[in-house]
Amino acid sequence: MTAQGPEASKQSATAQAPNLAPDMAKDMAPDVASTDALTVTRVDNLDGVAVLTLHAPPGNALSPVLRTEIMTQMTRLIADDTVTGIVLTGGPKAFSLGLDIRTLDHPSGDAPQMDAVCNLIAASPKPVVAAIEGAALGSGLELALSCHARIAAPEARMGFPELVFGLIPGAGGTQRLPRLIGAARALALLVTPRQYPANAPEMAGLFHAITPHPVPAAIALLRATPSFTRPDDRSDGFADPTDYIAAVTAARNAPATIASVAPATRIVDCVEAALLLPPAQGRAFERVAHEDCLASDDLHGLLHAHFAERRAVNMPELVGQKIQAPDTIGVVGGGPAAAGIVAAALAAGLQVIQFERNAEALADAAARLAALPDPPSGAARLRLLPTSDLRLLANAGLVIEAVAEAPQTKAQVFAALAEATRPGTVLATNSLLQAIAPMAQASRRPVDVLALHFHGPAQTNPLAEIVISRATSPAALARAVGLAQALGKHPVRSAGGAGGIGERMQAALRDALAGMIQIGVSPAAIDAALLDYGFAHAPLAGLDRIGLDLALSRGGLLARDGVRVPQAHLMLLRRLVEDGRKGRAVELGFYRWHGEVAHHDPRLRGLLPATAQSDPGLDPAEIVLRALAALANEGARLLRAEIALRPSDIDMIMVLGYGFPRGRGGPMKAADMVGMFEISRLLRRLAETDPVLYDPDPGFAALAKNGETFDALNKLGRHRRRIPD
Question: Which residue numbers are catalytic?
Answer without folding.
Answer: 142, 162
